[in-house]
Specification:
- The complex is a heterodimer.
- Chain A has one domain.
- Helix content of chain A is 84%, strand content 0%.
- In chain A, α2 runs antiparallel to α3.
- The longest helix of chain A has 38 residues.
- In chain A, 23% of the residues are buried.
- Chain B is mainly α.
- Helices cover 68% and strands 0% of the residues of chain B.
- Chain B has five helices and no strands.
- In chain B, α3 runs antiparallel to α4.
- The longest helix of chain B has 38 residues.
- Classes of the chains: A mainly alpha, B mainly alpha.
- Chains A and B meet through α2, α3 and α4 of A and α1, α2, α3 and α4 of B.
């Protein structure tokens, strides 16, 4: 059942597109580690400037944590899917074939 | 003679598998950044070469590059309305007064709030383009547009076949 699903995903290129999308979203989320806090900080600066408040808002480093976790999760899922779909099938049968003659000898 | 062959426990089928996986095709110049011919890769480089080959063969790298470029294009298109909202009134005023100095390009409340955030989004789009370029250079050895352009040729050949 899983082998059929894997074959269908590989043959239809849905797996490649899905893994590529996960990789790309992981990279976009990684960029968000820098852009999201910066964006939030700009908005806070503007709000402070417009309302005439005197205190200066600190740079929101903790705003980067969700982007960091999202990027890590997406990249890990993408790598696991890549390994499951494209890595083992080509290598395992050859290793088994190559070990058999040695055992016979 | 294969360098380092004596020190490994590989037999002939393993060598053939290794040669098929990690040794570049002589017709394709320097695909993996190694010299042409059978050569044992240094420790740590095997996984990288394998990952690159998997990314090429599975078309995952091409999909990721295309999605990164489209994502950056989408973000850049979001920046255009903000830019036009800021520049269009200044251009209109400059056209009416025939004064094309920068004096009309002032920030009002809305643009002063939206423009910095949009500039950060634009920075994100540039970062996506940079990531696509780095990925394409690492995997294919060429820029993203050229690597995707080569895919267009492959797809058209497959469609004709």
């Amino acid at each position: 059942m899983l082998d059929q699903l894997k074959t269908a995903l590989v043959d239809s290129f849905v797996g490649a597109i899905a893994v590529g999308w996960l990789f790309a979203q992981g990279i976009v989320s990684f960029c968000g580690i820098f852009t999201v806090p910066l964006q939030f900080w700009f908005q806070m600066q503007n709000r402070q400037y417009m309302s005439g408040m005197t205190f200066s808002p600190s740079f929101p480093v903790d705003m980067a944590i969700p982007s960091l976790l999202t990027a890590l999760l997406l990249l890990v899922v993408a790598f696991v899917l890549l390994r499951w779909l494209y890595y083992p099938a080509a290598i395992e049968p050859d290793c088994e074939e190559s070990s058999e003659p040695e055992q016979g000898a | 003679m294969i360098q380092g062959w004596e020190s490994t426990n590989l037999n002939q089928p393993d060598l053939e598998l290794y040669t098929a996986c990690f040794v570049p095709d002589p017709s394709q110049p320097d695909r993996f950044g190694t010299e042409t011919g059978a050569k044992m890769l240094p420790a740590g480089e095997t996984m990288q070469a394998s990952l690159r080959k998997t990314l090429i063969d599975s078309h995952v790298a091409a999909a990721a590059i295309a999605i990164l470029l489209l994502s950056s294009l989408r973000t850049a298109l979001f920046f255009l309305p903000t830019l036009s909202y800021w520049v269009a009134p200044a251009l209109t005023a400059a056209w009416k007064t025939r004064d094309f100095s920068q004096s009309h390009l002032s920030l009002n409340y809305a643009t002063s709030v939206i423009l910095p955030a949009s500039l950060v989004s634009l920075f994100g789009a540039l970062a996506c383009i940079l990531a696509a370029w780095l990925l394409s250079r690492w995997v294919y050895g060429v820029g993203p547009l050229r690597s995707l352009g080569s895919y267009r040729g492959k797809l058209s050949r497959r469609a004709h076949a």
